[in-house]
Amino acid sequence: MAKKVHAAPGRPGRAAAKTGRRARAITAASAAAVALIAVTGTASGAVAQGGGAGSAAPKRIGTAPRVPAGAAVTGETASGTRLHLSVNLAPRDRQSLADFVTAVSTPGNVQYHHYLAKGQFASAFGPTRATIAGVSRALKAAGLSPGKVSPDGLSIPVTATVAQASDAFGTGFRNVRLKDGTTDYLNTAAPLLPADVASSVTGIVGLSSINTVSSHHSAVRRASRHSSATATATVSGRGARTVTPHTYTPALCADFTGSGLTDGTDYYSPGKLAGAYGMTSSATAGAGQTVAVFELENVDAGSIAAYQSCVGTSASVSNVYVDTTAGAGAPATDGSVGVESALDIEDLIGLVPGAAIIDYQGPDAASATDQNVLDVYQRMVTDDQAQVISTSWGECEAVESSATANAENTIFAEAAAQGQSVVAASGDDGSSDCYRATGSTAKAVDDPASQPYVTGVGGTTMTTSGSTTTQTTWNNASGGTGGGVSSRWAPVVYQGGVATTTKRAVPDVSALADPADGYPIYFQDDSQSSSPVPGLVGGTSGAAPTWAAAIVQANAGTTCQTNGRVGFLNNALYKAARSSYPANFWDVTSGDNSVYATGYPAAAGYDEVTGLGSPKEAGLTTALCAAKGTAATGASTFHALSSPKRLLDTRNGTGWGLSSIPTTKPLVAGGTAPVRIEGAGGIPSSGVTAVVLNLTVTGTTGAGSLIAWADGTSKPTTSNLNWTGASQTIAASATVRVAGDGVVDLYTSSSTHLIADVQGYYTSGTSGSKYTALKPARLLDTRSKVGISTTTKISNAVISLKVRGHGGVPTAATSVVLNLTATQTVGGGYLEAYPEGATRPTASNVNWSATGTTIPNLVAVPIGSDGNVSIYVHGTSHVIADVSGYFSTSGSAFHTVTPLRLLDTRQTTALGAGKTLALQISGRDAIPSTGVKAVVLTVTVTGTTGSGYLTAWADGGSRPTASNLNWVQGKTIANQVIAPVGSDGKVDLYTNSTTNVIADVAGYIS
What we know:
The protein is of the alpha+beta class.
């Protein structure tokens, strides 16, 4: 029986099995070691001095690279050294590109799965012709010869000598000897560009040749045959070798089945792996699809042919060479070069033999520069031949230059806009991804797995016994799954409530990676045989193409064929996890990725070890290929809930985290909480146009603001709630448009716990109530016996407030809109408004956390059968209630608009004490120029100079005695206001003390 062969013990031993760096000859001007000194002056011919297009004051782009740990400066780089550079340009509107990717990835959005066609990116989102021409002129003025811009318009190639680049970009160049003995060069200062073109350039790549990109596979262990079966067919390759061909079977041939090793324990055949993940196993799986692999090495064609013969396939495998040619570079004959390519391609052949596979090959990793890496990715995207892109190569995020990372980010956003899915291995060094590059054991993650538009794939250990398969975190002597928190990328919307980290978390998902039960491949090792030999290999390099195959199978399925291919994966992945976890994923809950230092533990739900887990293909396909859906639009009517329903409370996990695994962590600064509206809290599962929420922040950690908007649409620049410091509890109501996926997003600029209670919702059609705006009137003021017989503060008691027949509210009114204000508070407390006679709800409307607070909030509350509304006071406070309108069967309908800032006096002059400002409403932001009865605004005061109040009313009428906002000096206060609109289309805003006023529109009544 064949013996099981292991890689050499000890984690550092893996390096020998990977594509290593090879020495490159770089002529140094001086052999003497010199200090690395940044160039601070501008060379005489620098772009900044070029005149014309480059006449503006210069700016440096990005930062200079750091000398790697363990490296030594050896002198100046020879002036004649040739550089292959790219000047990378920003999209014409980066936010519009991001919004488009969100739109095409969100069911219910009118753009859902309407991806850009091949070649459309340049005209839709690429830099303008004027921008490209301006940058090119500046480069020419500096003595450079820019080449033809890339098809997507994102990069201008430049070939120059070190002397030319030094003169043009105002930087020196130094040689450095790395710890492995190789010599590279780097620029000593960030490149200098004129200010008038600098803003259009994200970075210049190629000024440094230091590159630590590597593949993420383990050492190969030989799968020896003990069978002496007669071979009958010859496989083309380097040597004479025969393999018995057979019809497609995912169980492999005798090289593996006769090796004495067990399928499902020692390795996973394509059939066993597909079965474990619920994938289809057939000779036509993936038919009609194309998948591309990124490689920086040659691949042995004979090894691919041997695998095809073993598994009985005839998959189409083609090559595209980028910055290299066929046959160039190190041959795939030493048991190291070519292993990564063989693993990627053969894994895909076994799982999706019906798909076409394209190997995009760049120069050898040992000599490839960052520019070569970018060129390969850019070619894969601009060719737009493959619906799925898989890469098992990467480098430590902290080592990669910002110029390279930014250029990659734009390329991957382009891929997402075109509907291309990109998956990347998360690395094999656990939580210490920089260990091999720098020796650091600090927490770090791998690029491109950490890129926001890439799906990072971690690794697991898997064993099957009979019908039972178990899966744990991969972490043993051969390595461990990469994962952690990005040091570069901000929190991403799609991870909101799932990965509660301060930046982008990695990985997103995982799959088999352990070489001890890994992937069967054929590879070439001349020291063992003159023809391809069978072996077993692992690493997250195997997990990435496995996920690529899962996406290919989904795209080929009936559901995706009907609804459109998956495209950018992450939005759909995390939506699926929130709604039905773990139905669509195999949650991996044991182990950790502490390889060189303490890392992260696996746990139930998402973790920075295996992400959401491994695929359960059947359910996942349904989620990834969701139906387009439609968003409800048009005139809407209101439905008040009998009592508020809590949809989100990060303190106890309500609506927060995965569907079956809540979290109690607060929302991080810059984080987003997606809140399901349709189908939750008694709200219908479709037809909802907007929702009325009471939003509360509590346990604040500093000043901040909250923005609410429809998921899958652009985050507005407006705000709904503001707070000024730590340890505050403050609430505000918000009317938020609901898009086709039935979700709204809540963003906070600083870390805080967040609560969302729904008061009611709008639907298209006439089944609900309509709104009638009133001239604001005061129904209650405990300070002066209005609506009550006392002037004493209310303490832990219920106020019965008469509504029908008061302030213009008729007997036919079903709900009333009140502005509630707590003032002269004692300690902390809250108000709750509800229909009299009903059970008091558990949700609050107005909150305060300190003595002396004055705080308002707008509420829409059903009226009790006796015509009254109850207001419960928890704590001690005076209470004011002003009516601004009511809902009934008559009245006017509500219309949503995209949130827009209509007023910000910070840009002009603060509104003075006792002054009135007339704000134009009609004719702005999709609001019609006539027929508008009322407008829904979020009004914010900031920079308050003393205690005061604000009143809003219809222009042309007399100012009412009611108020909409109240504050004390130094506070920033926001409140929703439904204000009547004058016949001239204006609303008047009055303040009794000087303050800045901001007004954001959410909708209108007409």
